[in-house]
Amino acid sequence: MASTPALLLLVLLMLFANETTAETNHTHLISIGSVISPTGTHASWASRSGLFAFGFYPHGNSYAVGIWLLNQPNHTIVWTHNRDSPSVPSNSTLRLTKEGGLLLLQGNEDPEFLTPLYYLYQAKVEVASASMLDSGNFVLYDKNFSMLWSSFHNSMPSDTILGGQNLTSGAKLVSSVSQSDHSSGHFWLRSQFDYVHLAACRVNSTCEPEDAYWAKNTYFEGYGYLQLSLSIEGSLCLQDYSSGSELECLASSKNLTDKSKNATFIYRATLDEDGNFRLYAHQFKGNTSSGVQTLWKAVEGDKCQVPLCGLNSYCFIKSDKAMCQCYPGFIRIKSGGNDTRFLDCEQNHSKDNCESIEDPTTMYNMTSLKDIYWGGSPYLVVPMEMETCKKSCQKDCDCRAVLYKSSICEKYKLPLLYGRSSKDASTTAFLKMPSGIVLSPTSNETALSSTKPSLFVDDKRSLIMILSFTLGWISFFGLVFVLYIFIIYRRQVHRYAILSASENLGFVEECSLRSFSFDELVKSTGGFAEEIGRGSFGAVYRGTIGDSNRMVAVRRLEKFVDEGEREFQAEITAIARTHHKNLVKLIGFCIDGSRKLLVFEYLSNGSLADLLFKSHMTMAWKERLKIALDVARGVLYLHEECDVRIIHCNIKPQNILMDEMWTAKISDFGFARLLKPSYSRMKKMDDKRSRYLAPEWQKDESVSVKADVYSFGVVLLEIACRRSSIDMN
Ligand SMILES: *[C@@H]1O[C@H](CO)[C@@H](O)[C@H](O)[C@H]1NC(C)=O
Ligand SMILES: *[C@@H]1O[C@H](CO)[C@@H](O)[C@H](O)[C@H]1NC(C)=O
Ligand SMILES: *[C@@H]1O[C@H](CO)[C@@H](O)[C@H](O)[C@H]1NC(C)=O
Ligand SMILES: *[C@@H]1O[C@H](CO)[C@@H](O)[C@H](O)[C@H]1NC(C)=O
Ligand SMILES: *[C@@H]1O[C@H](CO)[C@@H](O)[C@H](O)[C@H]1NC(C)=O
Ligand SMILES: *[C@@H]1O[C@H](CO)[C@@H](O)[C@H](O)[C@H]1NC(C)=O
Ligand SMILES: *[C@@H]1O[C@H](CO)[C@@H](O)[C@H](O)[C@H]1NC(C)=O
Ligand SMILES: *[C@@H]1O[C@H](CO)[C@@H](O)[C@H](O)[C@H]1NC(C)=O
Ligand SMILES: *[C@@H]1O[C@H](CO)[C@@H](O)[C@H](O)[C@H]1NC(C)=O
Ligand SMILES: *[C@@H]1O[C@H](CO)[C@@H](O)[C@H](O)[C@H]1NC(C)=O
Ligand SMILES: *[C@@H]1O[C@H](CO)[C@@H](O)[C@H](O)[C@H]1NC(C)=O
Ligand SMILES: *[C@@H]1O[C@H](CO)[C@@H](O)[C@H](O)[C@H]1NC(C)=O
């Protein structure tokens, strides 16, 4: 009996001990009312070790607010407030206040009307103190020393994470412009949700695999939420956000050379201004620095492996420096100084009228470029001979350049991205250049008239008349014939059609759907923690939305991420317009780049498949009949009664869900068209599904509503027998 209070005490002690040892040291607190200013006695608040400071640092002719690592030849800035316009005047102050948190006063502003630097979302809680911790984390505490705000957790990192800090999924590091200018530079390191989990790419690119110059893919069971974490001990690892378990480590402090005993190490991972992501170890003895080591870097090899050059230019190395140069036929957009990095180039001739010329081949020569290749994605990839490849680019007005690689012809439009020279390039690059015969940079009118082949000369005028007369009649009869065939066709054939939304259809208003942000859905599903099913389109997670904590099912669509946004919206519109008690209702959606998610009502009693094949619940004939009728009503509605006919194409017990009243509802409808290109692939892969597929569909013939009737028949049989129609064993 006596053990209970003892246990309690132990737990309390552990909690307390945890709190104090972890990060809080109550002896080094910043109290309410403390003020710092760039020119005053205190320009910063230092950590107890004296290695980190938060406050004002010189920035050009004025000052900026940030956190830096002390005692370097020059301070290492690890975080800057408002980095893209950081300058504050020399008479600014930073003040810790009870209600507002940290207030940055610039000049003679009235503190009453200031937004705090650190906006406290729990507005009712008062700040009691703050502290610059030895880890480099600046924190605000309440009375009970629980953290209200911390720079590690609540602020966007700039280009650096420190030991103890995480880069969560969806967040990114942005490189600085230079070592002295900490505003946003040219590179991103993004922790992503999708296939590529961690990717480095040029700023403003989509950071898709073809854009990334460095990427880390970690196979990750269950599509969770991933983060990059740098531990206090210097291990840089990818972690599962929800469990905190390590998936893969990129680097660790094990490789430290010269690890002297009494030294303190501070680890920092920075996306440097040259685009490389590096892990540094700063060594200190007491508070004096004794050197920096680079423990790891993401991109090994030459500097041009990072896409240092801009549009239509390529990177090369000259005396160990990376330089950029425009492709032949291109000129610099802005004439810069000697640093040619990030050079953007444009065509040196005005836009041609390629489209209006009958034979554009004569307008261009194909110039081959030695040892050069580029990245980005070609708009066309076809296997063909090299000569044919060149010819076909000359003819094609969209084509500006080709990469020819082991009998594959890749055609590119402008701008050409991520160009670089490389001795070991296994590709041959050709650039389309104006041949000079027809195109002059200034006048396109004369160019046009000189190229237009004068095929029809005067003495052939009568021939033209005859030709046009005959052709006219032929086309007329042709048109009549086509119309006739069309009418016959219309009468006889059921067309497979799901009407897509018309151009001017207000998408969101029309179907009163809610548009969610990706972050909202991450929050509502607890980081996609609970997977409740997996359909042909991707996994389904449980979540809650709104103040009433309404349960929802969030479906992440994975199969057709490449599909255009408009087609996707058209399909959602079609789904959203359905209203029937035997169909699962769509509540909202989220389109965030390639991430597409749908939010459906949550049905608590699982799927018909669970009920039929897994549960041991007895099912009276009456109940089974009701389920069969429910499904039939849903199918009838999809086929006959809703505005736009929808063929489900995938009716099976797994797609029939049961609500709390045991009403059967059909889910997964309306996507057949989006999925069409992957039909055949899916058919082969998904044996289990094919037993519900109508035979004509399996033979790739055209699909009609009858396909659903077939599938329904199989389901009906399974409801009656309560066993699977085909047992694979
Ligand atoms: C807190 O700081 C004091 C001196 O400033 C030091 O003696 C003490 O060990 C520190 N406590 C912890 C838990 O780090
Ligand atoms: C470094 O430490 C010494 C004593 O340990 C102290 O006198 C000095 O002020 C410290 N310097 C800084 C910049 O914190
Ligand atoms: C430190 O800063 C000065 C002036 O801003 C600069 O000239 C010098 O190169 C910097 N040193 C290092 C090591 O970055
Ligand atoms: C701060 O400096 C600016 C000019 O740099 C001046 O206009 C302003 O009056 C100053 N404010 C205070 C409170 O001194
Ligand atoms: C501090 O802790 C006490 C008791 O644990 C609690 O009653 C109080 O609400 C807490 N205050 C804050 C600001 O969290
Ligand atoms: C990226 O996009 C933003 C917003 O469109 C723009 O302000 C910025 O200049 C772009 N950066 C680069 C490097 O192109
Ligand atoms: C970083 O992630 C780990 C594991 O999920 C967690 O324990 C830790 O609190 C996180 N750190 C911060 C500053 O959020
Ligand atoms: C550590 O060093 C060893 C040998 O020097 C090397 O093989 C290994 O890749 C290094 N590890 C890291 C994470 O840099
Ligand atoms: C480490 O510190 C101890 C005492 O503080 C000292 O005797 C020893 O020489 C130091 N070792 C090194 C490598 O500096
Ligand atoms: C550019 O480089 C040339 C020689 O390579 C040098 O003479 C010139 O001063 C440099 N210009 C600048 C602005 O650095
Ligand atoms: C393009 O090719 C034609 C003949 O093939 C040649 O006469 C012309 O000089 C070439 N133009 C350029 C710019 O290379
Ligand atoms: C090229 O032609 C277009 C229309 O034919 C005209 O608007 C444009 O000004 C022309 N450009 C030049 C450089 O002559």
From TrEMBL:
Matches recorded under InterPro entries: Bulb-type_lectin_dom, Bulb-type_lectin_dom_sf, G-type_lectin_kinases/EP1-like, Kinase-like_dom_sf, Prot_kinase_dom, Ser-Thr/Tyr_kinase_cat_dom, SRK-like_kinase
Q: What is its main location?
A: membrane
Residues folding into a coiled coil are none
Task: Name any one Pfam family assigned in the record.
Answer: PK_Tyr_Ser-Thr
* Record keywords, A-Z: ATP-binding, Disulfide bond, EGF-like domain, Glycoprotein, Kinase, Membrane, Nucleotide-binding, Receptor, Serine/threonine-protein kinase, Signal, Transferase, Transmembrane, Transmembrane helix
Asked if the keyword Repeat belongs to this entry, the reply reads: no
Q: Give Gene Ontology CC terms.
A: membrane
Could you tell me the membrane topology recorded for this protein? Single-pass type I membrane protein
Q: Which domain of life is it from?
A: Eukaryota
In terms of PROSITE patterns, this protein maps to:
BULB_LECTIN, PROTEIN_KINASE_DOM
Q: Where is the Protein kinase domain?
A: 526-729
Localization in the cell: Membrane
Give the enzyme's EC designation: 2.7.11.1
Substrates-to-products reaction catalysed: L-threonyl-[protein] + ATP = O-phospho-L-threonyl-[protein] + ADP + H(+); L-seryl-[protein] + ATP = O-phospho-L-seryl-[protein] + ADP + H(+)
| Signal peptide segment | 1-22
Membrane-traversing stretches: 463-489
Q: Which family does it belong to?
A: Belongs to the protein kinase superfamily. Ser/Thr protein kinase family.
The protein depicted here goes by the name Receptor-like serine/threonine-protein kinase
| Gene, per the UniProt record | LOC107470055
